Amino acid sequence: MSLYQKYRPRDFDSLVWQDFIKISLKNALKQDKLVWAYLFYGSRGTGKTTTARILAKWVNCLNLTEEGNPCLGCTNCKAFENGELIDIIEIDWASNWLVDDIRDLIEKAQFQPNFAKYKIYIIDEVHMLSKWAFNALLKTLEEPPKHVKFILATTEIHKILDTIISRTQRYDFKKITENDIVERLRFIGHSEWINVEEDALKLIARLSKWWLRDAISFFEQYSIGWSLKLDYLKSNLQLVWDEFLEWFLTNITSYDYSKVIDNLAFLKDKWIDVKIFLEEFIYFLHSKITETISWNNFSVYMDLYDGLIDIYSKLKSVPNTFLLLEFSIIKFLKRDEINVNSNKISEELTRITEKPKTIKKEEKKEEEIKVEVPVKTIVKEIKAEFKVEEIQDNAQEVKNENAREFEIGTFFDSIKKDSWKWFILMSLKSSKLIYKNWKLKIFVSTDFNFNKLSTPEIKSYLETKLNELFWFRAEIELILEKNDNSWNDIINDAMSVF
Fold first, then answer.
1. 413-423: string of b/e by CB count within 10 Å (b at 16+)?
2. Stated pTM of the model
3. DSSP assignments along 360-411, one per residue
């Protein structure tokens, strides 16, 4: 038997950290005020299912103790411990979530229990139920048979319908702290005659993200030869020492590029788990921030912390997590240079786009020679100077030499081919379009069509479509015009009418 199963609480006295829930349930039993449905909410590993099992045994126990616990010795208690009490049914709705499953449950709930006083349904992950399954369960929860009780458990309370919550008695399970987990692991180690190191227990509590079930699994896995050592944990989990983290952090904050590269090479050779390394580094950096809040390095620490959090959020979307870590650290070291170059390019582009097309190139004697130099040519020179691969020039006067003439038929046919864009085409066909001076004006005659076309997503789609078809970026302007008599005046003023 695994340590988690062996030390799983079997009565309320052995249930730790959820004192309010324990006292409230025991008080309800003493006063005979049990309700027909309970809802247990909390993060994974906080004891929801364990409490539900204790409650189910407690309700059907034939000989409760003086302390108000299940006796664990009567026929019903022994049958439940052996998985033989058919009147206590555990269901995981992650795999039984259809309406037919709920209907089958409701039908069987009408029958009297076989051996116990109550038929208990323990429904785990109840938030996985579909909306229709919830509705099917709703009536039974509101008026269940007197011999039936429901215990629902979930980790995502926001997915439970309010109508379901209102028909249950809700209990919120609090998060287990690091000290609580360390204390529990210390107790298990003492009971199993395992020598443990305090730092190893703290590390397990952090790696388990304060979920007791995972912490006990870690504890059992790395307890070798009746001992649990920090060195063995770090070696097998590919972790690094605090001394290395201190050295790494010092090199980063001092912007010692060569030493940081050596540190990254060491991490690569060690084949670290980037996710676990980031968790340890962020935890270490958090300790440094709280210790050195008045130091000059505080702002640098905070910038690095934001950078590490950004890396952590991108781990699932990149093919090579170590390359992400490596490039992100280098980018952090060189961020000042990157910002300076970006500012220079931005300032130069602003200066160029604000100049007229005709500029002075050279003067010969008293005669001034004016040479027209396209802005696009100057931008290419700026690209070469700053070694930038691509710079987008948004100046309105710069037009693509290959731009095609706007054709409304081509425009409509292209939109028609896009799936789920038919409503845009219908709105455009009921409107009037005028193209003039790189502007596409859309005169809409109804509020309904105006609201559909005025969203940022639709305008961005139309701009992209124009650029793809005709190789120019046209400014799109929506105008709500309900007066049909004004259309002729608008058309007569336009250069191009479609």
1. eebeeeeeeee
2. 0.56
3. EEEEETTEEEEEE--HHHHHHHHHHHHT-S------TT---TTPPPP-HHHH
The upper half-sphere exposure of residue 413, i.e. CA atoms within 13 Å in the direction of its Cβ, equals: 6
Q: Please give the Cα distance from 86 to 76 (Å, whole number).
A: 10
Place of tokens 């409230």: 24
What are the tens digits of pLDDT across the range 149-165? 999 999 899 988 888 89
- Give the tens place of pLDDT for each residue, 242-300: 778 888 988 898 888 889 999 898 888 878 888 888 888 888 888 888 776 556 677 78
Q: Which residues of the chain have pLDDT under 50?
A: 357-373, 375-376, 378-380, 382-402, 483-488, 490-498
Return contacts of 453-458, CB within 8 angstroms, 24+ apart: 453/424, 453/427, 453/428, 453/478, 454/478, 458/424
- Tokens read off for 6: 């062996």
Contact 77, 88 (CB under 8 A): no
CA 42 to mean position of chain CA atoms: 18
Six token digits for residue 402: 């290959």
CA distance 358 to 367: 16
Short-list 472, 474, 467, 475, CA closest to 403: 472
